[in-house]
Design brief:
10 helices; Amidase_CS; Amidase; Amidase_dom; AS_sf
Length: 374
């Protein structure tokens, strides 16, 4: 891991509230007195928010200090974090690599040590992917576990507000302040089943990393993983068309993002219905595995994070979400945890738990990392 660089992750800096934990929020969450621009020129003159997003209000009331809003992939619709208009954050530990999207700035400011934690949003891996790229922890709670009131887009069947931290102890503290039942630290190794679904070198690195911590997971399969990925792409395309089509009229949405938004117009009702059938089947498959083993583990990314140069074409890297997007479809809580490097690029382990078991994800992360804080 390289020395920490400055992140350039903030789009606006300010201070609201006071307290023992400092946090930043992705610029898709409303903060009263500021515009929510979502990294998009078409929202440059958006109205000033009159109220905080509910989760922001809750954190300010829980003795946390807000330090600003962070950069992102335009309209939170991309996986690289590259944003020529709004600015691309530097990946603090891996500056040649993408910061990951869409919550790029939120991951970067945590990795750089500029805040204790941050908020992002995750519709198809947009917290877990940048966490993996920047070498930090990223939690996507179960669908609906954290309020989306005051979050863009207003309607989504996939999107979740998520959290970035550098360590599991801080994640425990934040969730405790939000009244999540985390429970006491584990007294023995967590029971984990491993899904081999990434590049073989990555899967080998992850199972070795677990073995170093005394865990020899049983190997299981998720037959519906690829179908769930494709169904998630179908639904996000349609839902983003419905949410953002009104921004396309004056040409101020970047060409690649506008092209992907327009593609959602062609998604038919029948395709959405089939995607919902996949959702039901995949949710049942995941639930079935979790009845026997309380935690599933698999790679966060199926390949190593690309460099900024390698990721110039955003469509060429969309399959990087192949292992994270399915759990937006199913709604299960999932956490990405740094797990070493291959050839100087970060590798991350994804843990998945039953709905309502965010606390178990934190407990497992504490066990696997030695429960470090700071």
């Amino acid at each position: 891991m390289q020395p920490v660089s400055k992140s350039n992750g903030y789009v606006e800096r300010f201070t609201l509230g006071g307290g023992s934990l400092r946090f930043a929020v992705k610029d898709t969450l409303d903060v009263a007195g500021f515009r929510t621009r979502a990294g998009c020129p078409a929202l440059d003159d958006a109205p000033v928010a009159v109220a905080h997003a509910r989760i922001v209000e809750a954190l300010l009331a829980a003795d946390c200090a807000l330090t600003g809003k962070t950069r992102l992939h335009e309209l939170a619709f991309g996986v690289t974090g590259i944003n020529p208009w709004g600015g691309t954050p530097i990946n603090p530990h891996y500056p040649a690599l993408i910061p990951g999207g869409s919550s790029s700035g939120s991951a970067a400011v945590v990795a750089a040590g500029e805040v204790d934690f941050s908020l992002g949003t995750d519709t198809g891996g947009s917290v877990r992917m940048p966490a993996a790229c920047c070498g930090v922890i990223g939690l996507k709670p179960g669908f609906g576990a954290l309020s989306r009131e005051g979050v863009m887009p207003a309607e989504s069947s996939l999107d979740c507000v998520g959290l970035f931290t550098r360590d599991a102890g801080t994640l425990r503290e934040v969730l405790t302040r939000l009244a999540f039942p985390v429970g006491q630290p584990l007294g023995s190794a967590p029971d984990i089943a491993f899904i081999r679904a990434a590049d073989p070198a990555i899967d080998t690195r992850l199972t070795a990393w677990l073995a170093e911590r005394g865990i020899q997971p049983r190997v299981r399969t998720l037959a519906g993983l690829n179908d769930a990925h494709r169904a998630g792409l179908t639904l996000i395309a349609r839902e983003n068309w419905q949410a953002f089509r009104g921004l396309l009229a004056d040409g101020r949405v970047s060409a690649d993002v506008a092209t992907r938004i327009r593609a959602g117009e062609a998604v038919t009702a029948g395709e959405c219905a089939r995607a919902e059938q996949v959702r039901t089947a995949f949710r049942a498959e995941v639930d079935g595995l979790l009845e026997h083993t309380p935690l599933l583990a698999l790679a966060t990314l199926p390949e190593l994070p690309p460099t900024l140069r390698e990721a110039r074409d955003p469509l060429s890297v969309v399959n990087l979400t192949r292992l994270v997007r399915p759990f937006n479809l199913s709604g299960h809580p999932a956490l990405s945890l740094p797990a070493g490097e291959i050839a100087g690029r970060p590798v991350a382990l994804q843990l998945v738990a039953q709905k309502g078991a965010e606390g178990l994800l934190v407990q497992a992360a504490e066990w696997l990392t030695g429960q470090r804080r700071g």
